Amino acid sequence: MAITWMEGKKSQDWANLVLAVCLFISPWVIGFSAETMPSWNAWIAAVILGALAVAALSVFAEWEEWANLVLGLWMVVSPWVLGFTANASAMWTAVVMGVLIAAVSLWAVWDVHHPQAHA
User: Fold this and answer.
1) How many separate domains does the chain show?
2) I need a surface site. Which of 43, 91, 102, 119 has the fewest CB within 10 A?
3) Rounded to 5, what percent of the chain is helix, strand, coil?
């Protein structure tokens, strides 16, 4: 059974929702919940990512994917901007999650502009 373009789009939105949940629980799972700055950074970014994913699952808008890309890039640079590079667990969690968020967002934007790739 072939996957239609919209079904593929939904899978990217579900991936963002899973990433949001992972990011939200990461301070406890990875063990940096006692650190205020990286924990709140993860929680706030997770809530924004989750809200955008739920919105995109309801009604798709390309701007949501661009917002997710910005959020992913923020997560990559946030350890240096917010000053928590000394906590390797928090830093690498932010960087890896940011790269994953940005990658899913770029994938979604690519699909918007290259729908023939699914033909």
Assistant:
1) 1
2) 119
3) 85, 0, 15
